[in-house]
Design brief:
single chain, about 425 residues, alpha/beta, Rossmann fold, eleven-stranded mixed beta sheet, six-stranded parallel beta sheet, 18 helices, about 20% strand
Length: about 425
């Protein structure tokens, strides 16, 4: 088994829906790929983890789209135009950066060619998404106008992209002069009364959660595209960059419709022995006010002997059977942090349990880092002459299992337990509002 790992990186990142889309496309093509959310605080952390984990591709979201460029070898034309990258892929053993956000807007609008005949597009907002929208419009040979509150930024966009600009105060007077309107504003921001819009328009809103335009589309009679269109249409070319295979947007839309992950106050930590699951897990449990459970400790308590003794007296199969039953038992509990044994993920049923019932975070570090200073007396699989070689072989064999079990991955090399816990706590708190 040699799973190719892909990821999306940003800060925060646990909210990302990209894994839902790309994993669905991979499964449809029967490709041995697994796409995860990657924790990082900087672009350097992101690219370091990319190389350590031997990733085959990576999507990049805020706030790293520009910072990541300095670590890449080449950029596509779209990435150069935007001076921003949302897709890192490998080509001829070099790291390339693309901007499929641009392609996503183009593909969304091109679904409705009649609107292109007007030859104009209005972009509302001047934030991080705006350059991609402008370039997409210009690639479609549209005359682009940008409306925003920040006059200084508007002037910069005008100089850089040769677009027309208007202040937001003028928006109500001219919004209906455009057949294609793209709102590139954060969720909840309202800059004009949407009821003034007329029918016969195409509205693309970058927001895919609670757009102010969606409910009015049927009443007024304009065509509405949510941010999901943009999200899917940027994921399709990214999938092609990563795998050199084609996919259908319909597959990704269906995956989004079925997706219903809910945080159930049940966190599992997986990873190789010595990576810090227990020590960081205890700190994390204290921060959340959850109960900490060490799966190996619970099995030893039940059996009345150390794991090494269980392996010697009853065999690994016996141990793995108990391990699976214990994991199944904890998959219905709440308010827990569960530290899993290094080999828990070897069992396919356990992978499924972790994937479906826990917010499972894979703590990654090299085998050398993991076994330095590790007491191997209770590590039956490391009772051998060349421990370093055996550990590396075991880790490489298990990487696909960790990837298939996890919701996200955190590179913990050179992080102490407190830092690991704080990183995880911050991400969960920012995403799920604990």
């Amino acid at each position: 088994m040699n799973t190719n790992i892909l990821a999306v990186v940003g800060n925060p990142i646990l909210h990302s829906l990209s894994p839902v889309l790309i994993n669905a496309a991979c499964e449809n093509k029967n490709l041995d790929y697994r796409y995860l959310r990657l924790h990082a605080n900087t672009a350097l952390e992101a690219i370091t983890s990319f190389k350590m984990l031997n990733l085959k591709g990576m999507n990049v979201t805020a706030p790293f789209k520009q910072d990541i460029i300095q670590y890449l070898d080449n950029l596509t034309e779209n990435a150069k135009k935007a001076n921003a990258v949302n897709c890192v892929f490998i080509k001829n053993n070099q790291l390339w950066g693309d901007n499929t956000d641009i392609t996503g807007v183009e593909l969304s609008i091109k679904q409705y060619p009649d609107f292109l005949k007007d030859g104009k597009m209005l972009v509302i907002g001047s934030g991080g998404a705006t350059p991609a929208v402008i370039i997409a419009g210009q690639n479609l040979n549209l005359d682009v106008t940008v409306a925003a509150r920040n006059i200084e930024v508007l002037n910069q966009l005008k100089l850089k992209f040769n677009v027309k600009t208007i202040p937001l105060t003028e928006l109500p007077n001219c919004v209906n002069n455009f057949k294609i309107i793209v709102q590139a504003l954060p969720s909840g921001v309202k800059v004009f009364d949407p009821t003034i819009l007329k029918s016969g328009r195409l509205i693309l809103d970058a927001n895919y959660k609670d757009s102010i335009f969606e409910k009015l589309s049927n009443t007024i009679g304009y065509k509405f595209l949510s941010g999901k269109n943009w999200l899917v249409n940027q994921a399709v070319p990214a999938f092609n960059r990563f795998t050199e295979e084609n996919t259908s947007a319909d597959i990704m839309y269906k995956a989004l419709e079925k997706y219903n992950f809910k945080y159930q106050k049940r966190i599992a930590l997986v990873g190789f022995m010595g990576v810090g699951k227990t020590t960081s897990g205890k700190i994390l449990a204290e921060k959340f006010g959850y109960k900490f459970i060490d799966l190996d400790d619970e099995i030893e308590l039940q059996e009345g002997m150390k794991i090494s003794e269980i392996f010697n007296k009853k065999g690994e199969d016996y141990f793995r059977d108990i391990e699976q039953k214990k994991l199944s038992e904890y998959s219905n509990m709440q308010n827990i942090i569960l530290s899993c044994g290094g080999g828990t993920v070897k069992n396919k049923s356990n992978q499924k349990l972790l994937n479906n019932n826990f917010l499972t975070i894979w703590l990654y570090a090299t085998s050398k880092y993991c076994i330095e200073g590790l007491d191997v007396s209770n590590r039956p699989l490391l009772q051998c002459e060349n421990k370093a070689e055996k550990a590396e072989k075991m880790l490489q064999e298990r990487i696909p299992y960790y990837a298939n079990s996890a919701y996200s991955v955190l590179n913990v090399e050179n992080l102490h337990s407190q830092q690991i816990a704080e990183k995880i706590y911050e991400q969960i708190n920012r995403t799920f509002g604990i």
